[in-house]
Amino acid sequence: MRVIAGVARSVPLLAPEGEETRPTTDRIKETLFNILQMQVPGCRFLDLFAGSGQMGIEALSRGAHHAVLIDSGKEPAEIIKANLNKTKLSDKATLIQRQIPAALFQAKSEGPYDIIFMDPPYSLHDEAEILKGIDEYDLLNDGGVIIIETSKGRDLSFIDESIYEVSRIKTYKTNQHVFINKK
Fold first, then answer.
1. CB under 8 A, 24+ apart: contacts of 157-166
2. Cα dihedral 36/104/113/151 (nearest 10)
């Protein structure tokens, strides 16, 4: 796992041990950031369930103004700090080590955000509640995008019941990126 492009290009990143974290593969990360390439420079980026911090770090490397990385685990938080130091991007990032929804409330002070990326554990199925929190704390800028990384074939009907709508789905072998915007 490494930074794909930008000022920290090719810097290898650490990842937490164990099964709880599923780092996004470099190929999928590159595809996602190719889709977002025009939106990243100068943006405010929120990375929920950050794990290693690689998505927020990639955004910063590609010119994001600021990134907030949220993960509740002690080991992921230490890995994120180490990766930010390795890439020399610590001054452009804020790490929040708290559970969601409390972390969303804390992230409000750094927002609103142009891009919100969430990759919750696939078994959690908490995306609907997270979307309610994003709305409640007004975390998404008008014209901003939320990207949910989820298992392929996941029931997305919870989005229809919110103030959001699906604008695009990019499907891979076993997972997908669901792009949503305000209706």
1. 158/127, 158/128, 158/131, 159/131, 161/128, 162/128, 162/131, 162/132, 162/135, 163/135, 164/131
2. 20
User: Which DSSP symbol is given to 2?
Assistant: B
Would you place residue 11 in the very low, low, confident or very high pLDDT band (cuts 50, 70, 90)?
A: very high
The type of residue at 14 is: L
Mean pLDDT estimate for the chain: 93
Q: What letter does residue 92 receive in the DSSP assignment? A: G
Is 80 exceeded by the pLDDT of residue 20?
no
| Tens of pLDDT, residues 25-41 | 889 999 999 999 999 99
CA-to-CA distance for 111 and 22, rounded, in angstroms? 26
Residue 24 has a CB neighbour count (10 Å cut-off) of 22
Q: What are phi and psi of 22, to 5 degrees?
A: -115, 90
Would you state the pLDDT for residue 38? Answer: 96
For the record, the structure tokens of 161 come out as 């019941």
